[in-house]
Design goal:
This protein is α/β, with parallel strands linked by helices. The chain folds into 2 domains: 277 residues, no CATH class; 122 residues, no CATH class. It is built from 13 helices and 14 strands. It has a 5-stranded mixed beta sheet with strand order 1-14-13-12-11, sandwiched between helices. α9 packs antiparallel against α10.
């Protein structure tokens, strides 16, 4: 299956919601950056009760389903902090949590009755994962509490304080609960863990963990940490995030690693500030710049899928295109950096007299795809349309040749474009599912590879990337 960018006619476009309020529109922009537009859908509705809203934003990626509820309720200022907190917590956090749990129930019971519009005319375009194996992430975005928190705490970031021992009605301050304003634990452990992001932590978390893989990994490990039985006190979500990003588990993954057997962990204010100002973190941010070209490539393909302007249109255009891009969007930030270094290195080493050049990138883990990068010069006697067809066919040949070289390869993703810096540039992407590889396909691939002398001199290309580069 293949996809291409173009401005030609295709199927009807998929019109996603914009978000009703300013806060919802801002959430949409953050989610499009983190999850990319093909997997992020604001304003989801159900065909019950005249098109009732299910949630403010829904993300579906592989077996992950992320449900957002965004509430912007004014924090009361009656002069009584306890009363003001209780009202704000109930309206903003508890009510939002109820919406999320309701959305989760509806999705589990009616996965085929989700719509992009209140009239329920435009069906949700993504196929949901098998509900039995789906992982739900529930996120409340609670606005308008930051300034009051900062005022009452006499400074600080204004982020809500995380206290794992608090649950349910213990969030309410005053008798009989004796809760503390601005302290957040588990809204209701019996219904599923709720992550609460406020005006401070929303930006920090989503702009730092700005790939779907990095984001859901944090959510899963945070939930496990706060449910571990160890008492956790963190002065804010951003400080909890810094604690996570500075530690690795035995699998070299970021995690909430605590050395020793402690009954409680206290993560104090300043963790995030110290982390973001550390020279190695600043070096990481600079080194990551190249990786956003990968995001831009995925978004370019996504735009044409959503608008129905693919160069080559098929009856399963959305489904096939989404599957290809799912591999690309599934890469974390560090691996995107490595992939783009290798892609740009191929550009640099392709001389003007070379008709074609290619590079194979092997996977880091068994679940990663093999990538084939192909640069193919346009023959002078070809129209651009003929060249695009020729390039697409050559990309398929290269992907099949990759299967010959690496018999263990199951998922092969090819990306092709012009060499050099031509103003007129387009890209093609192709996915080869190599699980059903027959002897006939093998012999044909070998024959064409030999005839065209494709990928005869194979070098192992790898770019060593350090997450936090060394600094002098």
């Amino acid at each position: 299956m293949s996809l291409n960018d173009s401005n030609s006619k295709g199927r009807f476009p998929i019109k996603r919601g914009e978000g009703v309020t300013r806060a919802e529109r801002y959430l949409r922009s953050l989610c499009e950056r983190t999850f990319l537009s093909l997997w992020s859908y604001p304003g989801i509705y159900r065909d019950q009760g005249g098109g009732k809203e299910v949630c403010d934003l829904l993300v579906v990626f592989r077996n992950h389903i992320i449900i957002f509820s965004d509430k912007d309720c004014v924090f009361p200022d009656t002069g009584n902090l306890i009363k003001d907190w209780n009202r704000w917590y109930r309206r903003t956090i508890k009510n939002s949590a109820e919406q999320i749990w309701g959305a989760e129930r509806w999705i589990k019971e009616n996965p085929d009755r989700l719509f992009l519009d209140p009239e329920c005319q435009r069906s949700f375009p993504l196929e949901l994962p098998d509900i039995a194996g789906a992982i739900f992430h529930r996120i409340v975005v609670a606005h308008s509490g930051t300034e009051r928190c900062r005022r009452e705490m006499k400074g600080g970031s204004g982020s809500l304080i995380i206290v794992s021992n608090i649950a349910g009605d213990m969030h309410f301050a005053g008798e009989p609960y004796n809760g503390t304003p601005f302290w957040i634990g588990q809204v209701d452990p019996s219904k599923g863990f709720i992550h609460v992001l406020d005006d401070t932590s929303l930006d920090i978390v989503m702009q730092t963990l700005d790939t779907v893989g990095d984001f859901v990994s944090y959510l899963e490990k945070k939930e496990r940490f706060l449910n571990s039985g160890t008492s956790v006190f963190a002065t804010g979500e951003e400080d909890l995030l810094a604690f996570y990003l500075k530690r690795l588990n035995k699998n070299s993954e970021h995690d909430f690693v605590v050395d020793g057997n402690y009954k409680g962990v206290c993560i104090t204010e300043g963790e995030w500030k110290n982390f973001q100002n550390h020279p190695q973190r600043l070096a990481q941010v600079a080194a990551n710049e190249i990786s956003y070209s990968w995001d831009a490539l995925v978004e370019q393909f996504s735009h044409h899928i959503l608008e129905g302007t693919q160069y080559y249109s098929t009856s399963r255009e959305f489904e096939d295109g989404e599957k290809i891009l799912r591999f690309m969007a599934g890469e974390n930030r560090m691996r995107r950096r490595m992939l783009m270094h290798l892609f740009y290195d191929l550009f640099r080493k392709t001389t003007p007299d070379k008709i074609r050049s290619a590079r194979i990138v092997q996977p880091d883990t068994i679940d990663d795809p093999y990538y084939v990068f192909l640069l193919l010069r346009k023959p002078t006697d070809f129209t651009y349309e003929k060249y695009r067809e020729f390039r697409r066919n050559m990309l398929e040949v290269y992907c099949r040749a990759t299967k010959v070289i690496y018999p263990e390869a199951l998922d092969i993703v090819g990306i092709a474009t012009e060499p050099g810096v031509d103003e007129l540039r387009s890209e093609d992407a192709l996915y080869l599912n190599a699980r059903d590889w027959t002897q006939e396909l093998q012999e044909e691939a070998v024959r064409i590879r030999d005839e065209l002398s494709i990928l005869k001199e194979i070098r192992f290309h790898r770019c060593e990337v350090r997450e936090y580069p060394d600094v002098k």
